[in-house]
Structure formats: C-alpha cells, structure tokens
Specification:
Layout: H1 3-7, E1 11-12, H2 24-28, H3 30-40, E2 43-45, E3 50-52, H4 55-61, E4 67-68, H5 73-77, H6 84-91, H7 98-108, H8 114-118, H9 121-133, E5 141-142, H10 143-148, H11 150-160, H12 167-177, H13 185-212, H14 218-224, E6 226-227, E7 230-231, H15 234-264, H16 267-275, H17 280-290, E8 296-301, E9 305-307, E10 310-312, E11 317-321, H18 322-326, H19 360-377, E12 378-383, E13 388-389, E14 398-400, E15 402-407
Parallel strand pairs: 1-10, 3-11
Antiparallel strand pairs: 2-3, 4-8, 5-15, 6-7, 8-11, 9-10, 12-15, 13-14
Helix pairs in contact: 9-11, 9-19, 11-12, 11-15, 12-13, 13-15, 15-19, 16-19, 17-19
The protein binds protoporphyrin IX containing FE.
Length: about 400
C-alpha cells in the first residue's frame, strides 16, 4: 500500500467488523477467533477501541510517533491517582517517552545484550538443572507450580545477586506486584503497595551493598553503566530493577508453560527435540511466535490516524494483537501451525521500536536452556488432567499444567 493510499481516509472505525473479546466464545478459542477476524480485516472494533490484527498494519503502526504508551491513564481510569504504585507506574521505563526514555535505555541496554546475558548462562543452567532434578518422576504434578513459576524468579534473583535465603520472600513480593495489571487494580492495590515498598527497600539494600563492593551481578553492572558522565539515579535504578522483576515473571512463566502444553500434544516432536538439542534456540523462537505471552499490547492514538482508508480518531485505545499478527502468513507461512523446523519468522512477541523488550535475550536464554534440558530428561510426557488458562487478554497463558513423566533411559 502506498503512503498516499494510507493517508486518504474515507472510512471510519464504524466500518470495521466487530470482535467481541469479552465473550465465552472468544475465551474458548482466542487464537482461532483472532486468526479468523484477521483473515477478514486488518483491524476490528472492540468494546475498548480498535484491535490491530494484520502483521503488516502492526509493523507499520507499532512504533509510529502518532501513537503513545497508555501510561498512567489506566490507573486514573480505575480511580487510582496517588500512592507508591501510582508513582512507580508513572515513572517506569515502559511508560516513559522521548529523551528521558532514550537516556535510560542507552545506559542500560548493554547490560541486557545477548553477550551480557551469556555471562549469566551458567547460573541459569544451574537453576534449570536444580528445578528439573526436583520434579516428581512417575507421579502427577503441576508444571507451572514446580517449574515455570520458580524458574524466572530463581534466575532473576541469581542474576541480581539476591541472597539465597531471601529468594522466597523476594519471589512473594514480586508475585504480588504482578497483580498490578490494569484489571482489578483497585481491589489489589493494598497488596501491591505493601509488596512494592518491601521490594524498593530490598533493592536499596542490594544497591548499597554493591556500592561498597562491586560483584559480577546485574546490580553491579547497572551501577557501572554510565555514558559521558551520565548515570542512573538511585530512584531510576530502583524503579528499573523492580520493573525487570515484574516484567520478566508472568511473561516468562507463561512462555515456559506454553512449551509444555504444546509438546504434551506432540510427543514425536518432543522426542525429536530430545535427540536434537541443537534445535532448542529455533524451537524457542517458534514457541514465542506461536503462543506469545503478551497476546496484545496497548497504545493510544495522539492524533487522528488514517490507515488503509480508515480514520481512527485521536485518543482511541489500540490493542496491538500480537497473537493475530504472529499467525499471519506474512509473519510465518501457515502461521496457525506450530512447526518444529520453522525457519526464522518476523514475530513481534517482544514488541517493536524504542520499547522493544529489554529482557528478550534473558527470556530467550531461559526457554533455550529449558528446551535443551527437559526433553533429555522426560520420556514420555503425559497429561494428568486439564490445563487452566488466564483470561486471554494482554499477558496470558497456562496457569496450571497437570502432567507426569517417566525418566528417559540413558
Ligand atoms: C517471554 C518473555 C517476555 C515477553 C513475551 C516480553 C514481551 C515484552 C514486550 C511485548 C515489550 C514491549 C512493551 C511495549 O512496547 O509497550 C516488553 C518490554 C519490556 N520487557 Fe519484556 N518480555 C518478556 C520477558 C522479559 C524479561 C525476562 C524481562 C526482564 C529481565 C523483561 C523486561 C522488559 C522491560 C524492562 C521492558 C520495557 C522496555 C522499554 O520500555 O524500553 N521482559 N517486553
């Protein structure tokens, strides 16, 4: 589509088909419903605004300067206008824009590069192996409870240099803060605020300790981060570390849980992966594409935006449907299929543009190590009941995966 075609708008949002994302029908098969709607139209209307569906429209608009992060409005919308959660949300990286955002990203990007993350590989492998070794053999267990939940928190604590004795309480606070997702914010607020206060105090202790004696952990790395005399303030550092915790927990947990849910229905693929652990990095990418833990991301239009003949008014909430775009043939041929030998795709599971996921290398590494280790250990894997899923909006995926396995010979 040419720039001229994109800028001439005769249609309105009312001309887009309607997608009911709150219905039982949608909840029962969200990926399939989004896929079907994307085949019909590049965008749809929903109860909250406009849903962008096609890979091309999302590629074109994701990082468009006419859009902005939802920011603090989701809080105000729910009547929350002050307090520690409000203050943190207002100033954390995802909601910053322009020069302030660029300055912080430049300071910390190096600490999250694939090379930097590789320095923590051994600690990550230790966490993976320890958790795998503790899984019950030949008896039912919940994969989320025993592996997908503890791994990201264990890895994050190991990387941040949290004392092993404090990991459990750190994990509890971090888990409480993840309840900050916009829905039901108000009723969860007291728990979230208590956890935030505790986390900020603990992070301050970590920072003070590393200021006295640097180590080979991420806090020391972030303290060293500076450019042209510019460095992070203590408040920026605390806000960032809490964001890393919160941003990396639910997302990575769901991504790990999706791996097992997917392979529980594909025993032959699981065996092939066990025989070919070198496939782990590309299979991790395919898992991220096929079942993105952040199914949709949000933006607001700052001004009227015309695209493909439709004018979307200023201040419209846009749901950027990663789930729909990742299944588009423009992203991956026969995108609705999981393929063990999928060539690289153009998935957008980590976002696009200036807010591209800071923890992408870390999340990829956790998936890769898991996909190298578990298939070699488990043979076969079996369902032991029904999986339970979080409502398929925003950050979502399997919350319970009852399964069992026998130990692989050799
Ligand atoms: C499978 C796991 C993960 C997925 C699917 C994921 C996805 C995303 C997405 C889509 C964004 C873009 C947000 C936006 O544009 O509004 C993002 C940003 C971010 N992610 Fe992740 N993420 C994952 C894991 C992690 C981990 C492990 C960490 C921490 C170590 C992390 C830290 C961040 C941070 C700090 C940002 C904000 C970057 C910025 O605004 O500049 N993420 N993530």
């Amino acid at each position: 589509m040419s720039a001229v075609e994109q800028s001439v708008g005769t249609g309105t949002v009312a001309d887009l088909p309607y997608l009911d994302m709150e219905s039982e029908d949608f909840f029962a098969a969200p990926y399939e419903r989004l896929d079907a709607m994307r085949r019909q139209s590049w965008a749809a209307r929903s109860a909250m605004g406009v849903v962008l569906l096609s890979h091309k429209a999302i590629q074109d608009l994701y990082a468009d300067p006419r859009l902005r992060q939802p920011g603090i409005e989701v809080f105000k919308f729910q009547g929350v206008t002050e307090g520690p959660a409000y203050d943190w949300w207002e100033t954390h990286l995802v909601h910053l824009e322009g020069q302030t955002h660029t300055r912080i990203r430049r300071l910390v990007a190096g600490a999250f590069s694939p090379k930097s993350v590789d320095r923590y590989r051994e600690r990550m492998r230790t966490q993976v192996r320890e958790l795998a070794a503790m899984l019950p053999v030949d008896e039912p267990f919940d994969f989320v409870e025993r592996y997908a939940d503890p791994l990201p928190i264990g890895v994050t604590c190991a990387i941040l240099g949290v004392d092993p004795a404090d990991v459990a309480k750190f994990g509890k606070w971090a888990g409480d803060v993840t309840r900050i997702a916009p829905t039901q914010l108000k009723e969860n607020l007291p728990v979230i605020e208590d956890a935030l206060r505790a986390l900020f105090d603990y992070v301050e202790y970590l920072v003070e300790r590393r200021r006295r004696e640097m180590g080979d952990d991420l806090v020391s790395e972030l303290l060293r981060s500076q450019e042209g005399g510019n460095r992070l303030s203590l408040d920026e550092l605390k806000s960032l570390i809490v964001l890393l915790l919160v941003g990396g927990l639910d997302t990575t947990r769901f991504a790990l849980a999706w791996c097992l849910v997917t392979f529980l229905d594909r025993p032959e693929d699981w065996d092939e992966l066990a025989a070919h652990p070198e496939l782990a990095p590309s299979v991790a990418e395919e898992m991220l594409r096929y079942r993105p833990a952040i199914m949709e991301n949000f933006r607001f239009t700052k001004v009227d935006v015309t695209y493909a003949g439709i004018t979307i008014p200023a201040n419209t909430l846009l749901s950027i449907s990663t789930a729909a775009a990742n299944w588009d043939d423009a992203c991956a041929a026969n995108g609705s299929e999981f393929q063990l030998h999928r060539p690289p795709s153009q998935h957008i599971s980590f976002g696009k543009g200036s807010h591209f996921c800071l923890g992408a290398s870390l999340a990829r590494a956790e998936l890769e190590e898991t996909l190298r280790t578990l298939p070699a250990l488990m043979n076969p894997i079996r369902w032991e009941g029904e999986a339970r899923y979080r409502i398929p909006r925003m950050i979502s995926g399997p919350e319970k995966v009852p399964m069992s396995f026998s130990r692989r010979a050799g």
